[in-house]
Fold each of these.
Amino acid sequence: MIRRRRTILTDAAAAIPESTAAHGARVNLLGLPRAELEAFCAALGHRTYRARQLMHWLYKRGCGDFAQMTDLARGFRAELAERAEVALPHILSEQQAADGTRKWLLSGGSGQAFEMVYIPEPDRGTLCISSQVGCALDCAFCSTAQQGFNRNLSAAEIVGQVWLANRELGFVAGAERIISNVVLMGMGEPLANYRNVLPAMRILLDDLGFDLSRRRVTLSTSGLVPQIYRLAEDINVALAVSLHAPDDALRNELVPINRRHPIAELLDACWHYIDEQNGRSVTIEYVMLDGVNDSPVQARALARLLAGHPAKVNLIPFNPFPGTGFRRSSEQAIRSFRDELIRGGVIATVRRTRGEDIDAACGQLVGRVSDRTVVRLGSKMAAAQHRPGAGRGVASAVGPGEGAHR
Ligand code: SF4
């Protein structure tokens, strides 16, 4: 009997996301979506309904202390205490902006840190979470890119941000939810960490998990095309794409992954995602850079790309950070750009900048990345262009999974 249980545990452990299983001897339950939590309970010799009870405590009651889970058998609680944990990212510091936006700096271990931001609005509360410590994609206008890349966050660290923010914001079981929307727009490229982002999103959507509507969980990507096709098979969430330029020549400079997956290929993948998941539209993010991508000619070119497709454009006033050579477009230029898009038949809005006084606005998250294990994509691609087979080395710069498993 003992041998049988050990065998099952080995099988179940294989189903647990690598980064979660690797977190010491105990499994962090925040990294396990329902099916994997059921497998974990089965591996301990318990019926699968125990997983549902656990999820109720974790996500409906906000309780991570097994001793308090009083409707679980005493023996099961003891086993959980031995084999499992509910471990949250450690808060290093917190800042609050004049507009109520809150930003937390969270420990990524080994001196690394990442950030999450809560943005309160009258009709919603949005939490912007990170998926990686740093980022390898090297977008020219992004302060995270200046940090380089350290590592992927585990599924538990991604879910743990939502759990932690709920706790810090005063979550009360049964009361109206504080976090109504979650956006994966913090540090990192979510699709470069597919293996951990996917289970995390499953927990966000699960009615036994955070039970968020699929329209209120937004994954934002700079354009990892193979992963967008894979996403279309795996999960239905709101998709946002960082486009930032209406032509490949400019986008190659602003978003270097474009040299591998140019605009036409990227947009085809977006329309496929919407078709497959029966979605409403893709949000096209476009940061407004003075004199770079904000002319009426460029607005008309963008409208031609998008008109007739399920897309809406979100214009983001650039948020400067130390050392950047870019400037924010004038309000007049942003308004004119928006009006050109609308005249071209494209829905367009301007994002209101939040949390600027604490560097919590879009593109300003920096965390702390002191150990950069992967070279930044822009420099990697520049070097690759001088070698035979130019461009083939990009996958290693993006991190595990681009063009392979993610
Ligand atoms: S914009 Fe996103 S993908 Fe690009 S470098 Fe910044 S975090 Fe990475």
Amino acid sequence: MSRALCLAHMREDDLHAVVQIERLCFPDPWSERAFREELHKPNASLWVAREEGVVGYGVLWMQVDEAHIANLAVHPQHRRRGIGRALLRALLLEARRRSAAFVTLEVRVSNLAAQQLYAAHGFEVVGRRKAYYTNNREDALLMTVTQFNTLEYQAQLADWAAMLPPLCCDEHAT
Ligand SMILES: CC(C)(COP(=O)(O)OP(=O)(O)OC[C@H]1O[C@@H](n2cnc3c(N)ncnc32)[C@H](O)[C@@H]1OP(=O)(O)O)[C@@H](O)C(=O)NCCC(=O)NCCS
């Protein structure tokens, strides 16, 4: 029987699946050790989307009042089903819970799929980092939600919260 999509905080026993997806998604993947270290950092929040197993994940860092989307990926076989959108929204809601004033991220200039996803969530290009990615010296676009603390954006977040997939049943609301 197939299991419905749900969201959960990443756990140690998700790491193997997460790293497999990471390797499929990025030419410069984070190591399992890097993810494990993130799990123990109080300023990091790591989420997974699960069905039969992990199908995607996202990582948010808080630096004072800046929330930074540090990682977001969906298994190639599970793309275009709204999982990336759900994870991004979960991270944005986490940013709100942690009182972020604004949200930032870097994205490859060639990564039009991710840029579209971010633009649909209020991210705007505010800068360009030359040769940011070490594997091919590709530039990064710096994208920011500057309107994060406006009433309009907070209302939008509340709507998105209502549309999120449920928490996985072994997940405790924190
Ligand atoms: C970017 C990524 C996370 C999107 O995940 P996904 O689950 O496929 O995305 P969703 O199905 O939730 O799509 C949400 C929106 O993103 C945009 N999008 C996603 N994939 C797209 C594509 N291939 N082409 C154009 N737009 C795309 C669309 O606006 C889409 O909305 P729509 O389906 O209504 O048109 C996924 O493509 C991925 O893991 N890529 C590799 C890793 C990566 O680039 N991460 C981001 C690093 S900054």
